[in-house]
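Pipeline run #58 for the internal structure catalog. This entry was flagged by the ingest filter as a single-chain record with no existing model, so it goes straight to prediction. Upstream metadata was stripped on purpose; only the residue string is passed forward. Reviewer on rotation: M.T. Logging verbosity set to normal.
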Amino acid sequence: MKSPVALILFNRPDFTRKVFHRIAESKPKKLFLIADGPREGNSDDIKKCEETRKVVENINWECDVYRNYSDTNLGCGIRPATGISWVFQHVDRAIILEDDCLPDLSFFKFCNEILEKYKDDNRVMQINGDNFQLGEKRTKYSYYFSKYTLTWGWATWRRAWEYYDYQIKLWEEFQDTDFPLGITQNEGASTYWRHQFNKAFQSESVSFWDYQWTFSFWVQNGLSISPNETLVSNIGFGENATHTKSKSNPYAYRPLGKMEFPLNHPPYMMANKEADDFIAHQVSKQLRFINNNNHSLLKKAAKKVLNKLGLR
């Protein structure tokens, strides 16, 4: 397996062990390990970060290993962003996994082949490990093209990542337009992403890095490649997760599919509208959930205030 692999890890040794075992099976020639440091004042973090780093110490195949370990906690925004940028200081392509993204072994072979096939095609900026279609097949080919970046196991090239800007300074030029409505074709989804872009633009301490990547991808009119099977499953849903807390989420613990070879390449390069509309619809549902939840929280807070004032 010629393509380099990057693994982003923190304080979850059990998840890391599962993902690292799958990486070890693929035997990449180059392995990049990106680790965040313990949170200040968190003694449990110190122990778990040490244990997690021990998981990836035993490299029992021929491999060049690069380590970028932070002594302090940079957070789940800056740490992945700086780590991925560091990877592309050394190589021109990479397969990227986080410690809770469990791939099928065929994911590596799929990425390896696609990274080579489209290495000089600037239209393609990412390879997704999943498709977020909840089991629906969208094409008769091995994969299809999409307008969406799905980063629970993915791959890209240095030529694409060069457009990445953590602070998305270009957002200033788009704030007063309807962007990205022209891409999503869905008011709710567009509103959701605008909200995330505003947060990234206004603050350096956001707890995410991937919305900035989506912005960079969209303003370059990029295409991603999505497999027709789920090749990476997010196993990190739970109370201790930063973002993916609900185990009842339909995207949690998706059963892994397997890519068949040789690949059946599509004879055209157009985003699959049916698949992309499905993603936009799911994102729009998420926005409604957030709005309803915020409304409930506001009602509870108002009720507390009124009770204190003796008005209820």
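catalog note: The longest helix spans residues 273-308.
catalog note: The chain has a mean pLDDT of 90.
status: ready for reviewer M.T.
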